[in-house]
Give the backbone structure.
Amino acid sequence: MRIRRIARRMVRSRCVRVPKAQAEQVRRRLAFAGALRGDLRPGRDRDFVYLPVSGAAREPVGTLCERDLEPVRKPPESYRETAGVPSELRKGLPRAFDVIGKVLIIKIPDGLAQYRREIGKALLLARPEARSVAMDRGVQGEDRVRDLEVIAGEPELETTHVEHGLRFLLDPSKVYFSPRLATERSRVAGLVREKEAVLDMFAGVGPFSIQIAKRARPSVVRAADINPAAVEYLKRNLRLNKVSGVEPMLADARELPGKVPPADRIVMNLPHSAFGFLPVALELLRPGGTVHLYEIVAREGLARRREEVAAAVEGAGRELLSVRPRLVRGFSASESHYVFDLWID
Ligand SMILES: C[S@@+](CC[C@H](N)C(=O)[O-])C[C@H]1O[C@@H](n2cnc3c(N)ncnc32)[C@H](O)[C@@H]1O
């Protein structure tokens, strides 16, 4: 078998030559004195280690010499430094992108879309653990699936995402998943009391349901979704994480009343339209129960939305014992993603 070695350009540097046994101690002294070069790898032969030092090194810690050394291979700090786009457009390159398992998902502004393949290549170089890069052309339809175009790497997008030690198999071009809610899902799981019946009305591939079933001790978690692909992945994820006590349901949440028994806690993570489903949730909530209602709201309109939520609960003949809006994350220049924790009698 032929082994191909990649020739690397060596760099001549001033070095301190020290016997192997003392190398670590000397390396630390030089680093502490700020004299060790971090851009080159130390050299070695049978008896000695060659520590690269900057011109300013004055420490009498070994024999000074010169040697050719290999540069440290560093991935670029950011894909923005290496992407092949004209320099005047570079500042428009997005700073953030989502990482779902081995898939990177990035929104590219219109003015840069023609450079999408260069952007994809640079991202793969900067994140060697990734397998594919996809451009996000927006979320569409009731099942909130992203319109994705693969711009670099492998065309297959099915991947396993790990969140708080749990594994979620999914294809982001077939189901909705956002890695940005990991902390929020963990918060909600921490609120679930023993023996609660939980309803996850818009469950997707199961990140709320599975975390609740694994971290808390509910009597049952009913997990509904309208997207057949999401329910299939949810079933696979239950097996993958060895979870019991979650009942997956392919269903439109509007049709749940009469089909499922009342719940103590309802998770409503459909942020652009969950408010419209509140009357359905109220039909399904036991007195003294809790609803986590997720909403994308203009920051200026938060107080008004809170009043609308209160009016909807009271209009359904229920008593709102407390309502607490919490910021989950920023969404756009003027809007944020909030959760209203509603305690309802
Ligand atoms: C924003 S995603 C949230 C998924 C999941 N809870 C998560 O945190 O990743 C909303 C989900 O609601 C589902 N959905 C939309 N309308 C629905 C409806 N009327 N009934 C049930 N599920 C619905 C979509 O298919 C999608 O999977």
Remarks:
- The radius of gyration is 27 Å.
